[in-house]
Amino acid sequence: MSKGKYDIKSFPGFRAITLLCLFILYAPLLVVTVYSFNDSQSLTVWEGLSWRWYADVFTGPESGKFKEAARNSFVIAIVAATTATIIATLAATAMVRGGKFKLRSISFGLISLPLMVPEIVTAVAVLIFFNSIGFERGLMTILISHIAFCIPFAYLPISARMQGIEDTYEQAAMDLYATKRQAFTKILLPLMMPGIISGFLLAFIVSLDDFIITNFVKGAGVETLPTAIFGSVKQGLKPNIMAISTMLLSVSVVMVTISYFVSKSDNTK
Amino acid sequence: MSDERENAIDVREAVKRYGDFTALKTISLTIKDNEFFTLLGPSGCGKTTLLRMIAGFENVTEGEILLYGQEIENLPPYKRPVNTVFQNYALFPHMTILDNVAFGLEMRGNSKADARKRAGEVLELVQLSQFAARKPSQLSGGQQQRVALARALAPQPKVLLLDEPLSALDLKLRKAMQIELKHLQRETGITFIFVTHDQEEALTMSDRIAVMSAGELQQLGEARDIYERPRNMFVADFIGETNLLEVSVDAVEGGRAKCHLGGGHELTCNAVDEIGAGSTVHMSVRPERLFMSDAPTESESLKGTVKENIYIGTDLSTIIALADGPDFIVRTSNSDRGIKRIFEPGSDIYVNMEQGAARLLID
Ligand SMILES: Nc1ncnc2c1ncn2[C@@H]1O[C@H](COP(=O)(O)OP(=O)(O)OP(=O)(O)O)[C@@H](O)[C@H]1O
Ligand SMILES: [Mg+2]
User: Fold this and answer.
1) What is residue B328's three-state secondary structure?
2) Which CATH number applies to B241-361?
3) How far, in Å, CA of A37 to CA of A5, rounded?
4) Are A196 and A85 in contact (CB under 8 A)?
């Protein structure tokens, strides 16, 4: 079926449309990456290769602000991703191993719904929520909201992995004198590990890159990398933004790549 | 067989229901200590269900199960001195073979070093020592099967449950494993409860067999008993090949029943208490208990015509039609060829059977 006249590659315009899509998706990223190495004050005039703007990010006038923001971002991403992963692991265990309980499909909906709710709606809702309970805005509010929206991202790879693990493994463990808890920690958890790592990395990236929700719930003077970049851009585009964006991009690419390979990997071989 | 032995398992009027579906209908049986006991029956008859109730993965709806005299209903699986060889082996894929086998011992509280040492010994017993460091996915099906066996044997359970452990193996390996399992059972002295739907396997391996069908126990006895003295239609039909024919009972006297087949052919069968004169029932006679001749013999002789000869390796199977009556299948061992003639299709011959070869069956 993949060959012959139904081969999708032989449809007229297939190649052109594919190339156009790829171009639209990646050209801007490519331009930013290339021009971050530009030895020029201007955003658009190429004057040769240099690390100048990377140096500027670390030592320039805005470096203090960026370093602070980067620290916040990474701390929040690590804590939020860890917490979300733990919650998601427990949720997946309950959902996949809990038998057929009545509210199962509703529960699954509740876990994955945040993926479909427009982020701005979540942002406004979280802000109103924090205001109404009188929670002072700051790092803590960012952290809590990040944990919340990271859960579904961590949940999906974990539960996908878990669905592939037959429950006879745990039964075999219990048959061999392992208590329920030992069956979980010695058998199920190790088998789920690739899913858990992959879920963690995804949650980490989502947290690290988040702008909208963070921008709503952060307190005055508290910045994460995306909000700091945005603040800086508002005062005028400078090439150092391209350098910092490129760095953020590479962190994302590395994480997503690791996540991909871990989820493909198999600790059973 | 001495009946002095303690009972390993006592199933007392156990019933299992899933919702309003009854998977097991009031099963009672005892399994003796040190016995190779087989649960035999077609797919869906409830063999796995009974095994899982003994292992503790299913609760008992009604009745009780005793393990060496002790009521076990309230013990979770990990507190029962019973190990299972699962149908799909369920080897822990992230652990080495050695760690798999050591798992039960460790969970039982043996030190890691001690557990591994014991595991190594058990691996030797199943001749897999050289694979100790591998992962299960790096072994063949037959090797995985032996690891599953070693893993279940290592903690020295009182009872070993085996759920169709050989069904995934090819015929040759299967035959070899049947013998190996039988030896292991003798050597270890552990009570084996073996599940299979293969009657030949059951006959080969078991001390005693429980034949089940549709959630009910049909017959329980030694292999020879079950094969030679099937109690009812189901057992006669399920175990081995047989001639299962409808007969009318004319008279019953001294354990013998005078009957006639369709076409008026008369023969004498072993009677059973439940069947009296005047009833129409089935009788069973094994094809290898029949022989052919040109002329009537002193034994029971029925006149017929040879329809077909079928070569099946060790034996020759001959189909014979009685005049206006049913067909019989007769098996002649190929090693008897010199002694017994081959009758070509179309020959008029007599089918003979010794006294007691044909048995009446209850439905
Ligand atoms: N959890 C369950 N819920 C409902 N019905 C079940 C359940 N488990 C088993 N059954 C039913 O109980 C009956 C017996 O099942 P069981 O697995 O014991 O059969 P089996 O004899 O082991 O068959 P096989 O040889 O195919 O393994 C079947 O009809 C099956 O559909
Ligand atoms: Mg079964």
Assistant:
1) strand
2) 2.40.50.100
3) 46
4) yes
Length of chain B: 363
Is the reported ipTM for this assembly greater than 0.90? no
Please give the CATH topology (third level) of the domain spanning B7-228.
Rossmann fold (3.40.50)
DSSP three-state, residue B270: strand
Q: Would you state the torsion angle of the CA atoms of residues B102, B104, B106, B112, taken in this order, to the nearest 10 degrees?
A: 0
Structural contact between residues A161 and A268, judged by C-beta atoms closer than 8 angstroms: no
- A175:B55 CB<8 A: yes
Cβ–ligand 1 contact at B332 (below 6 Å): no
Structure tokens at B291: 């022989």
List the one residue out of B154, B176, B164 whose CA is nearest residue B85.
B164
CA distances from B208 to B30, B34, B190, B230, B254 (A): 11, 12, 15, 14, 29
Q: What is the mean pLDDT of each run of 10 residues along chain B (363 residues)?
A: 71 92 92 94 92 92 91 89 92 94 93 92 89 92 90 93 88 88 90 93 93 93 91 90 90 87 85 86 91 84 89 88 88 74 85 87 86
Query: Ligand 1 within 6 A of B278 CB?
Result: no
Which residue has a Cα nearest atom 2 of ligand 1?
B18
Domains delineated in chain A:
10-49 (no CATH), 59-265 (1.10.3720.10)
Contact yes or no for B78 and A190 at CB 8 A = no
pTM over 0.95: no
Residue nearest to atom 5 of ligand 1 (CA): B18
Residues of chain B with CATH 3.40.50.300: 7-228
Backbone region of residue B164 per phi and psi (left: phi > 0; alpha: psi in -120 to 50; beta: other values): left
